[in-house]
From TrEMBL:
The lineage of its organism: Bacteria, Pseudomonadati, Bacteroidota, Flavobacteriia, Flavobacteriales. SUPFAM superfamilies: Purine and uridine phosphorylases (SSF53167). Residues 29-265 form the Nucleoside phosphorylase domain. It catalyses: uridine + phosphate = alpha-D-ribose 1-phosphate + uracil. GO terms for cellular component: cytosol. Its EC number is 2.4.2.3. Pfam families: PNP_UDP_1 (PF01048). GO terms for biological process: purine nucleoside catabolic process. It is an enzyme of class 2 (transferase). It comes from the Bacteria. GO terms for molecular function: purine-nucleoside phosphorylase activity; uridine phosphorylase activity. This is Uridine phosphorylase.
Length: 289
């Protein structure tokens, strides 16, 4: 039996942070970072059957062209992903009354729709990026046993190429779900490695008043290549989503609308239009699944 201190439930039987019970979620779930973006997606739904919010975690479940879909905001960063993925898995794979894992496990389909900055001049603002791999620079996933899902060769190549300071922890690399990749794939999307940082400023190479450990890290990431895969963009969630999903038996895919180009120093003139286009594309692909 899983102890009450390990799996915390609210008085109504919902999981502690997400405020959800099993019947509240669909098997197809879209993640967004910003709670205000949830309704940017569900405004296209035919119906909305359920809505709740606790802290930054907002969830709405409904149907789009007859397909039952949940949309959830995760907030920012790998630490929030640790909460969201573990509690979602508990909803479908743990009997919350007996506190025992179920014999027959459910695999969720999780698609992240986010915004990101590109590291390459040839990946322009307003384009879309599909993350073939998540490269975690944050160290969160190292709290788990990840040898069976991580890509040692990619990690080793990145450490050598960047002269990575191991005091920051060993980076981890996790592939996307091939099943979801086939469903969502488009010739118009750029593909590559998405680097996931544990913060927005120093961990992503931004300097305000504090010096950073490696001022050249972004430049080194810009010319990293492994098996014809380069690092396309830098954000704060993808690798954590890929890692925990792989460990727990769920399918995960991360899609980003590029709203900034770090190489050219440009920013989208209409970032909302780019995000809306990615939302519409993803919903239609899910509805056809």
């Amino acid at each position: 039996m899983i102890k009450q201190s390990e799996l915390i439930l609210n008085p109504d039987g919902s999981v502690y942070h997400l405020n959800l019970r099993p019947e509240h979620i669909a098997n197809d779930i879209i993640f967004v970072g910003d709670q205000n973006r949830v309704e940017k997606i569900t405004q296209f739904f035919d119906t909305i059957e359920f809505s709740t919010q606790k802290r930054e975690f907002k969830t709405q479940t409904g149907t789009y062209k007859g397909k039952r879909i949940s949309v959830m905001s995760t907030g920012i960063g790998p630490d929030n992903i640790d909460i969201v993925l573990n509690e979602l898995d508990a909803l479908v794979n743990i009997d919350l009354e007996t506190r025992q894992p179920k014999e027959n496990l459910t695999s969720l389909n999780i698609i992240r729709i986010g915004t990101s900055g590109s590291l390459h001049a040839d990946i322009p603002v307003d384009s879309f990026v599909m993350s073939k791999f998540g490269l975690g620079l944050d160290n969160m996933l190292r709290s788990y046993l990840i040898d069976d899902v991580s890509q040692d060769a990619l990690e080793d190549a990145f450490i050598m190429h960047t002269n990575w300071d191991i005091r920051k922890g060993r980076p981890y690399a996790i592939p996307c779900s091939e099943a979801l990749e086939k469903i969502i794939e488009s010739d118009k999307m750029f593909k590559g490695i998405t680097a996931t940082a544990g913060g927005f400023y120093g961990p992503q190479g931004r300097v305000l008043r504090l010096n950073i450990q490696d001022e050249e890290l972004n430049n080194k990431m810009d010319n990293f290549n492994f098996d014809d895969q380069r690092i396309t963009n830098l954000e704060m969630e993808t690798a954590a989503i890929y890692g925990l999903s792989a460990l727990l038996g769920h399918n995960a895919l991360s899609l980003n609308a590029i709203i900034a180009n770090r190489a050219s120093g440009t920013f989208s003139e209409d970032p909302y239009k780019a995000v809306d286009a990615l939302i519409a594309y993803t919903l239609n692909k899910l509805a056809q699944k």
